[in-house]
Amino acid sequence: MIPKRLDPILATGSATRQLGERFESAGHQLYLVGGSVRDALLDSPMNDLDFATGARPDAIADLVDGWADTVFRVGEAFGTIGAIKDGVSYETTTFRSDVYREKSRKPRVEFSDDIETDLSRRDFTVNAMAILVSGSDDPQMIDPFHGLADLAAQVLRTPIDPRVSFGDDPLRMLRLFRFVATLGFGADPEAEQAVRDMKDRLSIVSAERIRDEFNKLMVGDHVAAGLWGLVNSQLAEEFIPELTALELEQDPHQHHKDVLAHTIAVVAKTSPIETLRVAALLHDIGKPATREFGPQGVSFHHHEVVGARLARERMRKLRYPKETVRDASQLVFLHMRPHTFKMGWTDSAVRRYVRDAGELLPLLNELVRCDVTTRSRKRATAISRRIDELEERIETLREQEALDALRPPIDGNDVMKHLGLKPGRDVGVAMKQLTEHRIEHGPYDEAEAYRLLDEWWSERQQT
Predict the structure, then answer these.
(1) In which residue ranges of the chain is CATH 1.10.110.30 found?
(2) Quick one: pLDDT at residue 399?
(3) In the chain, which residues fall in CATH 3.30.460.10?
């Protein structure tokens, strides 16, 4: 069965058919493979096209040269030649049979000579289907491992013994739950058991590869199922143990579920934005370290402070970009701040909240809303109403003053010129004082700024 949506791609005269004919003329077979075939069968968006062939990389490069607008050879060591034709990305890879050495972080690339061997070394049967692209008007579907049946059953199964497959590339254990999260499919029980038995094998995979695969899981439409798969298989313990540590911690405000269940529920409620979902996953990881038992029950005082530190440490170990580490940890640090609004917020408190959140304000407000997973409709409504009121206060102040630019009316150069100072610590302290006055009392003019500056400088000279 050839998916109808592939008709334009495989039509006579199409770029793909032209490419297939070039390979066929040179004595090679070219196959559309992997995710491209799977996505076509699922009627999902297809951004790029992936191909496999028995031709070696040099031959592939020669065949796409003159056909493609641009050719990329950066993946040649792994058998892959990239090309762009009319704005579409094409990647063609020599049939492979990759095997990891027992303690190696990188696979040993071995080429093979037939499509079935290549497909047998792919991660899951739903990604182990191929379509022969040639001059024929009757494209041939290659499905030696019954990927079509597994696609219909929505199950993720490895083409060969999962212990062999995961041994060849341990990252496939994480990829199993990534596809659970992105496709909504269930994991084959034998594959899940293999993950439990081999989870420590993930240690040979680089942090960067783990992070990239984990990010794809985190933005999946079925992220909760993917996260539960990581926890239940114990694979999470190998790269994000703070998550499983939440399982035994009872949230005093959510008596019907533990903190782990609450955390996964919060992640599932958030928009599929990497920084937001990572922050949601880590927002309560400070609770185990701050748990206390008192007359009122269990408490987790300042867990957001501890959690922000732990979030930074874990994200750095996973080699997240500095900006993502900074933003996600700041969301963790600030996620409890809006709850103090129930005691009433002054204008200065609203300004300080906006200043501390900065560009993260929309994400922070969403995180706070999604952090409500209580079964009590009354409590959920009350918290939601407080966030509504806070956002209304922010908009009111934004209309009244330049709330997004909480700066005093003079800058550091003005301070140095007025006081005759050179760049240094005193200038920074002066600007901090003027900024704090702006936050506490609202906008003021230059005359007031210089008056405050003179007053501060006079007191400083006397100490």
Answers:
(1) 159-239
(2) 77
(3) 4-153
pLDDT in tens, 86-138: 999 999 999 987 655 556 656 667 898 899 999 999 999 999 999 999 877 77
Asked if CATH classification 3.30.460.10 holds for the domain at 4-153, the reply, yes or no, is yes
Q: What tens digit of pLDDT does each residue of 221-267 get?
A: 999 999 999 999 999 999 999 999 998 545 455 444 589 999 999 99
Q: Which CATH class is domain 159-239?
A: mainly alpha
State the number of CA atoms in the 13 A half-sphere of 157 facing the CB: 19
Extract the tokens encoding 269.
Answer: 């409620």
How far is 253 from 306, CA to CA, in rounded Å? Answer: 19
Residues constituting the chain: 463
Joined together, the tokens standing for residue 23 give: 């390979």
Concatenate the DSSP letters of all residues of 171-182 into one string. Answer: HHHHHHHHHHHH
32, two tokens = 């559309």
Whole-number Cα distances in Å, 129 to 1, 50, 170, 340, 383: 11, 12, 21, 55, 50
Closest by CA position to 282, among listed 332, 336, 338: 332
Tell me which residue of 216, 243, 218 sits closest to 232, measured CA to CA: 243
Q: Following DSSP, what letter does each residue of 443-460 receive, concatenated?
A: ---HHHHHHHHHHHHHHH
| 130 closest CA partner among 57, 8, 60, 38 | 38
120: tokens are 């047998």
241 contact partners, CB below 8 Å, separation of at least 6: none
Query: Which of 178, 166, 234 is closest to 204 using CA atoms?
Result: 166
- For residue 84, the 8-state DSSP code is E
% pLDDT > 70, the chain? 92
Residue type, 345: W
What distance in Å separates the CA atoms of residue 260 and residue 237, rounded to the nearest whole number? 13
Query: pLDDT digits over 160-214, tens only?
Result: 999 999 998 999 999 999 999 999 999 999 999 999 999 999 999 999 999 999 9
